[in-house]
Design goal:
Elements lengths: L3 H11 L3 E6 L4 E4 L1 H8 L3 H4 L11 H11 L11 E6 L5 E12 L5 E10 L1 H54 L7 H24 L8 E4 H15 L4 E6 L6 E4 L1 H17 L5 E12 L3 E3 L2 E3 L2 E10 L6 H6 L17 H11 L3 E7 L3 E9 L22 E5 L3 H13 L3 E5 L2 H10 L6 E5 L7 H11 L4 E6 L3 H6 L9 E3 L4 H13 L7
Parallel strand pairs: 7-9, 15-16, 15-17, 17-18, 18-19
Antiparallel strand pairs: 1-2, 1-5, 3-4, 4-5, 6-8, 9-12, 10-11, 12-14, 13-14
The structure holds adenosine-5'-diphosphate and magnesium ion (MG).
């Protein structure tokens, strides 16, 4: 058996925590040598007789904590405090220190006995949980924001549909040499820009209807060039270098346009005094999976779209935050910080990837990887449609927004259609019941109060079994997700659209043999 003295020594020496005794001047008198070596890398003789300041990584901590805990009359604190220590080899790490005042037999305070514990691990897990928490808040914030923008964009889409449509009606009614034509053109152009902006908002809030098609990427780029040449200032030379083979990708045309426009506008902003904007495509094959940010690209073949500028380039601090929503280095009113966040969202959705190279003062290159798909091209997207054909069929319009209902009615009547209207599903069913003739096509808004478009259409198809249905909506998370518009035979049209687009679509549905119904 050990005697008391030996037992005490075992406690002291066996302790995993470092135990030290320091006097009122904070000079070290006694240490637990085993843990001293483990924690600090010193031998007892290297520290005994020295100030405990030797252990502190920063002098100001030594002074500050001394004033707080180690002055005459200081009490034993209830909680340990934390600070950074420095090992003999120079490593700095966090410790947790709990000092207790030591009294002599006469009751005078003669120093402190401190228990010192390595806090590296705890600090690390605390930081991790803090990071997780902030990511969680961030994602909640984004979610709320997405809902808000989605809602605003929805209402705005309705307004735009009415504006675009009425402008076109005005155009039909004025003479082709009227001095009003340039003004009508300007209104059209502005409305067009506004509808691009709402599309951007909808992508950001992920409530845009995405209709991916198998296409040649180069074709979309050729098409978008016109759009870019209007957007980009003249002191910037826009060049394209497209690969010849033109492999196919599965994308939504609007989204690719959006990627291009966002990257091109950023490039322009980085070249205020002019420069060169290069848009290029090439094919690459990845033999192993590659990771960039949270995106993982599977091995396989990709088309890479790269947008390069000869602008300012980006320092590391900017690169680190590049894709964060609302991260912008531009003045208020100039930048929203949504451009690259939107690009990131789109690319992630289609299982692609992004790479960024940038040199300060030289320029930047953004490369977007699109997975190549095999299969046929859906080319009809790029046919320029001829003027819409007239019709004499009966079309039933169900739409809760009176401005749009009225507009679509006028558009259809101007082309010879017979038109019935209702402002909601219940009214539509009532009217349909009382209608004696035929109804060829039901054009119905998806999101309506009282009864949604799907339910109403289903009921009406029971009455008119030959009736075809075209669903219309601007805010259609529900369409894609619950009803699966993508890839199914459902007829769907996203707001806002032009009168010509509506007329074409209606003719297309009425003329198709294999009717897709509700
Ligand atoms: P915004 O353009 O509204 O600021 P973005 O998300 O499009 O938001 O871009 C975020 C930031 O990334 C920009 O403010 C800018 O600092 C930087 N950036 C993006 N593209 C480029 C580029 N081509 N050259 C230099 N900096 C860029
Ligand atoms: Mg931008």
């Amino acid at each position: 058996m050990l005697d008391n003295q030996e037992l005490l020594a075992t406690f002291f020496e066996g302790a995993r925590d470092l135990i030290i005794f320091i006097d009122n001047e904070r000079v070290i008198h006694q240490v637990s040598s085993k843990s001293l070596h483990q924690l600090m890398g010193y031998k007892p003789e290297e520290v005994i007789g020295q100030s405990v300041g030797l252990f502190y990584a920063f002098d100001e901590d030594f002074v500050r904590l001394g004033e707080k805990y180690y002055h005459p009359g200081a009490k034993t604190p209830d909680e340990p405090y934390e600070c950074r220590y420095k090992r003999k080899n120079g490593d700095i790490f966090w410790v947790e220190i709990l000092p207790s005042v030591v009294h002599d037999r006469a009751g005078r305070a003669v120093g402190w006995m401190s228990i010192i514990r390595d806090a590296t691990q705890r600090k690390k897990s605390e930081e991790e949980s803090k990071k997780l928490q902030s990511q969680f808040y961030q994602s909640q914030k984004m979610d709320a924001l997405g809902r808000l923008t989605g809602g605003v964009a929805h209402d705005f889409n309705n307004l735009l549909t009415a504006m675009i449509g009425h402008v076109e009606l005005v155009r039909m009614k004025v003479q082709s040499d009227s001095p009003l034509i340039p003004h009508i053109d300007e209104i059209s152009r502005a409305a067009d820009r506004a509808s691009k902006l709402t599309r951007q908002l909808l992508t950001f809030s992920r409530s845009q209807v995405v209709i991916p098609r198998v296409l040649h990427l180069n074709m979309i780029i050729e098409e978008s060039r016109k759009l870019l040449s209007r957007l980009i200032q003249e002191n910037i030379e826009v060049k394209t270098k497209l690969n010849s083979s033109g492999p196919r990708v599965r994308v939504d045309v609007g989204q690719v346009e959006q990627i291009l426009v966002n990257l091109a506008i950023n490039a322009q902003d980085a070249m205020l005094s002019g420069g060169e904007l290069m848009i290029a495509t090439r094919e690459v094959e990845l033999n192993t999976a590659r990771r960039f940010m949270e995106m993982e690209m599977a091995p396989g073949r990709y088309v890479v779209l790269s947008v390069s500028d000869t602008g300012t380039g980006m320092p590391r601090e900017v690169l680190e935050h590049l894709f964060e929503p609302f991260f912008t280095t531009k003045e208020p009113g100039k930048g929203t910080g949504l451009g690259l966040a939107t690009v990131y969202g789109i690319v992630k959705q289609m299982a692609g990837g992004i790479e960024v190279e940038s040199t300060v003062g030289k320029g930047s290159t953004f490369s977007i990887y699109f997975p190549i798909v095999e299969g046929h091209t859906d080319t009809e997207e790029f046919r320029i449609p001829p003027a819409p054909e007239p019709g004499n069929e009966t079309v039933f319009l169900v739409e809760d927004d009176p401005a749009i209902r009225n507009l679509n009615q006028q558009i259809l009547q101007s082309k010879g259609y017979r038109v019935l209207t209702a402002s909601n599903g219940i009214e539509a069913i009532e009217k349909a019941k009382g209608h004696t003739g035929k109804i060829d096509l039901l054009v119905i808004d998806v999101v309506m109060p009282k009864m949604d478009g799907y339910q109403a259409a289903l009921k009406m198809c029971q009455i008119f079994s030959d009736m075809r249905v075209l669903y219309v909506s601007g805010y259609t998370k529900d369409v894609t997700m619950e009803h699966g518009v993508q890839g199914t035979g459902l007829n769907f049209m996203q707001k806002p659209f032009t009168p010509d687009q509506l007329l074409h679509r209606i003719r297309e549905i009425l003329d198709s043999k294999s009717a897709a119904r509700a």
